[in-house]
Amino acid sequence: MSPHVTTSSVANGNVSAATARAAARGAETAPGPRPTTFAKSLNTALADALEADPAVVLFGEDIGTLGGVFRVTDGLTARFGETRCFDTPLAESGIVGMAIGMAMNGMRPVVEMQFDAFAYPALEQIFSHVAKMHNRTRGAVKMPMVIRVPYAGGIGGVEHHCDSSESYYAHTPGLKVFTPATVADAYRMLREAIDSDDPVLFMEPKKLYWSKESLDLDVLRSEYDAGEAAATEGRAAVARSGTDATLIAYGPSVPTALAAAAAAAEEGRSIEVIDVRSIVPFDDETVCASVRKTGRAVVVAETPGFASVASEIVARVQERCFHSLAAPVLRVTGFDVPFPAPKLEHHFLPSVDRILDAVDELQWED
Question: What is the pTM for the complete model shown?
Answer without folding.
Answer: 0.91
